[in-house]
Structures
1.
Amino acid sequence: MTDQTTARHTEANVVLRQVGKPLERTDAEGKATGRTRYAGDYTMPGMLHAKVLRSDIASGKLKRLDASKARALPGVTAILTAEDLPDRLAATDMPGQTGQKRAATDRQILVREIIRHHGEPLALIAAETPAIADKAHDLIEYEIEPLPGVYETSAALQAGAPVVTEPDNIVGEHKIRKGDTEKGFAEADHIIENTFHTQFIEHAFLEPEVGLAWVDENGVINIRMSTQVIEHFRFIADAMGVPHNKVRILGAMVGGGFGGKEDITVELYLALLAQATRRPVRLAYTREDSFVGHGKRHPFDITHKTGVTKDGKITALEVTIRADSGAYVFLSPYVLLYCAVAAPGPYRIDNVKIDSKAIATNNMYTSAFRGFGAAQACVAYEAQMDEIAKAISIDRFELRRHNFMRTGDKTATGQTVESAIWSDKCMTQALAALGEPTNAEGPVKVGRGVATYQQSYGRITWFHDTAEAWVGIEVDGTVIVRSGVTDIGAGQASALGQIAAELLGVGLDDVVVYNSDSAVTPLAGTTTATRALYMTGRAAHKASEILRGRLVEFAASELGVRPEDVDLANGQAFVIDNPESAMSLKDLAARGASEGLQRSELAMFRAPFTDPIDEETGQGPVFPDFTYGCHAVEVAVDTETGEVTVLKSVGAHDIGQAINPQAVEGQIEGGALMGQGYALSEELIYQEGKLVSPSFSEYLIPTSMDMPEIKSIILESRSGLGPFGAKGIGEPSLTPVAPAIANAIADAIGTRVFDLPITPEKIVRALREADENA
Amino acid sequence: MSLEKAISVEINGIDRELTAPANETLLDCLRRHGHFEVKSGCEKGDCGACAVQIDGEPVDSCLTLAWTVEGRSVTTLEGLNDAENPHPLIAAFLEHGSVQCGYCTPGIMIAAEAMLREKPDPTNEDIAIALSGNLCRCTGYTKIFTAVKQAAGVLRQGGGDD
Ligand code: FES
Ligand code: FES
């Protein structure tokens, strides 16, 4: 026997030995024993401690800033203010990899005069101890003259409104036009219109932003930090006025990201202080710094007007979208685009008109968050589906079945979907997995809801996304993978190891993955946009495959057979029809090395490249591909208190091919609880732009007490663009959860709360109003 | 500078002397002495990432002053990872994929281990209550519950005994 592991036959009848197995991740043991070093666990001799002074007012004018007392404090090494950075700006645009020109959305690094949001940085402090830095922070004197601010998108659009972003507070706008909506509405028997509102929320990763920077002997600014994007090194270099090769960002295992570590966080402050002091500098955000200091999920107002025939065929859809982008642009135009493109859901609708705007206010700026606009879109379109079903009295699942897209259909932007669309299969299986309905008693009502979705994986195709990976085999037959991908907790690095192990015929234990170092590991792009597995997985696959080809060829000549007769497994190269005829990879690699065989390969994977969509019609391809699936829940609602308990939560997703099914389940389970918080309890409260809930005692994420029974159903169409036909699951696992819960609550109580979070107070009010109207 | 003193404390079974200023938290003190397995998530007692055991009882080290552990014993995750005899929780977390970003993991293991000594055959509710002070944003807790139950089973069979 050459292969002791149980062979796994996929639909394509390909034997996979490593991929598709719930293997222990390469990073698991270090984390489970406490040995993993996170970015905050590194120190250096002579290290300084940094602190950021922030504005506690959202809209104002900085009249005076006097750091002289703080500078005079013994142990204070540097205090930087806007005066020290006269011509420096920080990029807020999408982290680019291509050198393509970025949008003109740079922001001031430290406040020069105008303060646009609560928490905007006024000064940077570096001191010998954290306590001295704290004291210096309190000794900086400043005077802020409050200015009128604007805190609602509707107010920001009014004539004479304070201008947060020139010229008119509109920072993004997208239109989609398909077919003829007038004609579509004329064909409809019913027209149903509703507006849905989503709230500001916080990523709440457990590890606050942290990093350590030093300038090395070559004058390179090194920054070891917790980030999803090491390739911000380019923006840091631009902001510092140094060449790109003079800034290096090294990641570490990241204690959660969810989009909140996608934009620049501590790295620019660290670079500035390390350069100013020429000493190592550490900056660790407190939880409050983290709440106040990074961008949030956009609140959206989304109005759907849907025309539908009496048997449930959707004939026309008009959607109006407004997003609060807060005080700086950051990724708002892209988040808005995702929302607009996602707005029709996984449905085939021939007549579509979508208008969307992202609007600047003096609230905290909003940017990336798992689901990236498409999650907000789903909150609206799936609630609307249930409202349509209710209004025209047809079954809500049948309504969905009647309208689901099929492979080969076009999206609203005219992009043909070529991969599997298993929305129906996923919904049917998720509903079945809910099992027998739970009995309801007295004031407690039980309800069920589903949400299906269409969520892209991979970046917008006109970004021309690429990723690189290097794979090599050592002379003892062990394997090394190098790729710049950041690992934010989902097993991004381990997955590359599993792919290389599969192709090179070794176990995952025989692979070491080096990742997340902009100077040393080949650049692989960002861990965002559900692209890490797709892009870096394909790069690792490509490099492994080329290396495999060389090894197989060399083994074939050693074993005296043709290359097509040789396979690699269990650390051996063997003849497929005569497994006794074999040589170990160790011997093979050593023999190969002595013959000058190239034992490594660097490969680049390129996503599909397109031109931008048409500005007037929004027509054209936007994403490489999409994931489809369904989340189903059962809830119990106490109609007296409004309290909601999620009883069962099932995610069923076609992810193409699970590389590590256990890791996929982890995404689905984590998404289930994060979505539950989004639906029920999480909301950042801003008063006049000031965050009044900057702690976990006020901002409530789900705890172990809130955990329902969660089931994950993994479907594998093997039709995706990722390695082995994989799609993506990072964002899709979250997207349908909140709308499924909203629909289950509406099912339980017979009326709907149209704005998230669905708190007990809102439920009680909705019930009272429904009563009064009855 | 605030007053410093040396305190004797047993950490993971080894007698140590730690220097600490009067106002230093146990969290900062342990990390300053190289115990990076103790994590800082909020420094307000809200997240449980910093949990350690003092004389076997789980506490948030961010709310505990270092001086107050003088003469007592402190257990961190490192203490559960005895080279000869690692706690069955560790193997169970690895087997079930209960670790994602891993930042919450040290605190969760500390809380779970303390619960398992009180409740050798915990129900879901026992686990939920024991971990209610430990936030995890990645896992949805599901695989953590599975692992804790498995570790309980192993311990009941006599596995992982000292
Ligand atoms: S750091 Fe101690 S409870 Fe959060
Ligand atoms: S594994 Fe990331 S917070 Fe728990």
Note: The first helix of chain B runs from residue 26 to 32.
2.
Amino acid sequence: MRSDELVDCHVLVIGSGGAGVRAAIEADQYGDTVLVSKTIVGKGGCTPMAEGGYNAVLKELDSCEGHYEDTLRGGAYLNDPGLVRVLVDESPERMADLIRWGAVFDVDDLACVAQRPFGGQRFPRTCYAGDRTGHEMMTTLTERMADTGVETYQEVSIVSLLQHEGRASGAMGLDRDGEVILFRSDSTVIATGGGTRVYDISTNSSSGTGDGYALGYRAGAEVIDMEQIQFHPTGAVYPYDARGRLVTEAVRGEGGLLKNKLGERFMTCYDPERMELSTRDVVSRSIATEILEGRGTEHGGVYLDVTHLPASQVESRLPVMLEQFLKFGVDIRTEPMEVAPTAHHIMGGLRIRPDGSTTMKGLFACGEVSGGVHGANRLGGNALAETQVFGKRAGEAAGKAAVHSRDHDPAQVEAERKHLDEYFTGTSEPAGVWNKLKLSMWEGAGIFRTLPALEQTRSVILHLQSLQLRAVTAENLVECCTVRNMLTTASLIVESALLRPESRGAHVRKDISQAWTPETSPFGHTYLSTSCRGIEKVSR
Amino acid sequence: MKELTLRISRFDPKKDTAPHFENYTVNVHDGARVLHALHAVHDDCDPTLTYRYCCGTGQCGSCAVRVNGQPVLACMEEALEGITVEPLEIPVIKDLAVDLLPYINELPIICPVSTEAATMPAKDIVETMKPLRSCIGCMACVSVCPALSVSDFKGPTSMRQEMRLSLDPRDKKDRTAEAVNGGLFRCTSCQACWKVCPKEIQIPGKAIEKLREVAHFKGHTLPRHAEVAALIRETGRSVTWTEPSLLELTAEVMEPYGPVKKTVGFFVGCMYNLRLPKTALDAVEVLRRNGFRVVIPRDQICCGSPLIRTGQTEYVDTLKARNIAAFTALGIDTVVTMCAGCGSTLKHDYETPFKVIDFSELLAETGFGSPAHLGLNVTYHDPCHLARGQGVTEQPRTILRSLADITEMPSICCGSGGGVRSGFPDEAAALGQRRGDEIKKTGAEMVVTCCPFCEFHIAGHTDKPVRHLATLLLKGYREQEKSGT
Ligand SMILES: Cc1cc2nc3c(=O)[nH]c(=O)nc-3n(C[C@H](O)[C@H](O)[C@H](O)COP(=O)(O)OP(=O)(O)OC[C@H]3O[C@@H](n4cnc5c(N)ncnc54)[C@H](O)[C@@H]3O)c2cc1C
Ligand code: SF4
Ligand code: SF4
Ligand code: FES
């Protein structure tokens, strides 16, 4: 057996997005904390890309009760109410942490944090730093973490969770060169973010490959509501190779108008009351319908127009959008953008309790990799709040957890290593497999779903899983592991979709008609683990 | 889909002793970015190609590379046929991936963490901090900074962060002292950093000069810089008299030979007035030969650049007022500069009621009499404050091409600016030496430039003659006359 680099710690945090770094900062108060990340801290994950904002109740006129109700209504009442309560109650305090740590949010004339309206919310409660809110948070958190004892391993990818005596006991990682590092810990926090890169068109960063769902599921933890995928209504459609790139909801928050190729504000037909600021699931389906029915634009989208707004407002509130579109040859001050739905967020994920603990002993989860907070549709601005609220909670609970003998199971490590070695004799290029997967997911598990289409995608995934992925060199092992994780995440999405016999929030089954509203639905969470699967029934 | 060929620098320190280039042909869609071309190379040609990316949307700073020598974000730059892709000029991990962490880890952080009630700074402070806050840590600026490459200067983005922290009431540390220790006065104000910054953060003007200003008022000014400031206050000039000045050698109005095409004001600047008056005379002569009536106000003084670049700003408003008055009193609507530094200062630090234009810019714009080709092989040194400060790179070359053959060298700072030549002679010499080496590589017989500081400094680091463009152009005219055509 080759000797591996061993790293022991009290808390191991996997992922350096908003949730992971927040968890590490907290955990560090209780013992040695190690943070491992596939990417450079502050650069990877979706947090630095988040543009729109962070929801927090800060004003007298607003109320946590209002935020709670908006979140449940937006989530089609599939949310775990206990988690939502924690989210809305603690979000303002976590915002205050960021401010204490130096975050530069936009302020009003009285130096109070400025807030803008976001879809599905009765009060303008979305705090922002221009349209680089997540980047601002990430910069603040990274600086704060640099001032703690947290030890970081950057550009190291976790490929499996370690287990010892029935509990999570750390993780196995590969560095840039493909060398194994074993991290052994008393508690492990997964904060690997989302995974919509399993779809052909996605907003996610390079690490949005669903590693955490797959790692947790394979280790025996339970995932819930994995069928609930948010398709953001406004993704860019040009240039083709950069399709899916997010056009932030802040564009509509600032007053952007949606129009079809005939120049009609088509939202009047779908949600005349909330119009452009309806919830994301509704706006996405409306745009998809306009395009399907032939009222789309040249590049296969609809128009999103801010040309009626003063140029100065576009420049100061939407600088990143302005800059990105200019680079692609469109001046949004004078020309409309072209947009279409794009896979954005996974609402489901590892089942957690309010302290971030999963169904597996010693394993915690926070951020997008966890499920239950957003139900069947996430409100814009709630995910950044979630990273902070549950990042802190998971870090704290993991930190407070008891110290165990830090040991690993050599048989497990040997089996994992054997699995890695098999990639060297594989025959299928990971890139080709990923390509087939993402097209099939978009086809069969996209905005509108039917039983035959889901089954078709399931069979494609099964076929792809039967192929042996190929690593040319040790450096390519991570790519194989990532595609394997994508296949697992995709199958969790499809299996869960097949488990939910209703349309609910972002999950739309075109072939099912139902007699209930989300509030009166007889169904609760779908759940999946290596030992059980099903859908919860609710007695109303 | 379209086919695209690109050349990529490959380097695996485990196997290779030096980087080498490989050519690849890939298929990408219309409008594809460099990143997509790299994906295509990785997926379809060679899975061992290493490059870094995360967001794909210009927000994370992972993907900066050099395309045809220029630092850019791979995810934002359009992939064009025949491009060359290389890593940034900082230590390479493999292929296009460079080691960013040493620079990221050095960035100063806010402290101490407040335990008090969370309060945001006032709106005006927030608005000043915001542009400095948008740094995505791509390290493009670091990769081009001449000061950092030869000294222990912490670098442009570190100075940006010092400035952002110094503005923030939540930060309690003395950032000025920290910045001074980090090499605040080592920046040559070459402007290279912000010209390559994907977020266009104006580090030299909005961070370094501002920090130097605070440092000055806190008593951190270098003795040599203080001497210059004292001289300016005393004499109106940043250098001492050693020979008759241009102002002494000319009349206030110098008429053109032949009809008046246009009347222009002439801003001579301290160096050309006092140290290189003959070069200035050449420029005046060239202008007269091209039909310009050249008005040289007697009351003009130092533009203030040596004060602004070193943070000693208290006297600058006086200089500005006097210079503007000197030209407006004579009804001048266009002022010509021949010193890159003065030109950039008048254009950016002044609000002038008249148009300011560089000598080469004016001639390229209005057209110039054709000189004799001198049969020389020359190289052209882009002065920082002309090329990056004023965006003037093509005009001097247009003129030069009519006089000589040009062998190009990379456009980098010679080390004389920002008060570095006087403040840190060792650093200036190290950069000057590099310039000398580049000049040697070109095999040129002569170096041409448009800035007295560059001219002076480079002359100390090459055995080739260094001339202002005006001098060479005048020579071309004289040759033309001699040959009698
Ligand atoms: C373009 C875009 C804009 C958005 N805008 C908003 C918004 O305005 N408001 C809002 O509330 N939400 C927004 N969201 C959603 C929100 O940004 C994310 O849900 C949230 O940031 C997720 O944070 P996280 O910490 O859970 O994960 P991430 O920030 O995605 O971080 C995941 C981390 O895990 C690491 N990782 C992944 N796999 C591994 C592995 N195998 N081994 C080691 N490390 C690993 C990654 O490198 C990364 O560091 C947006 C999302 C996107 C994509
Ligand atoms: S202006 Fe030039 S020397 Fe100064 S920080 Fe920028 S790149 Fe470096
Ligand atoms: S200042 Fe600009 S160039 Fe330098 S690291 Fe930041 S974003 Fe990159
Ligand atoms: S990949 Fe993030 S800036 Fe290019």
Note: Chain B has four domains: 2-99, 104-217, 242-332+352-358, 366-484.
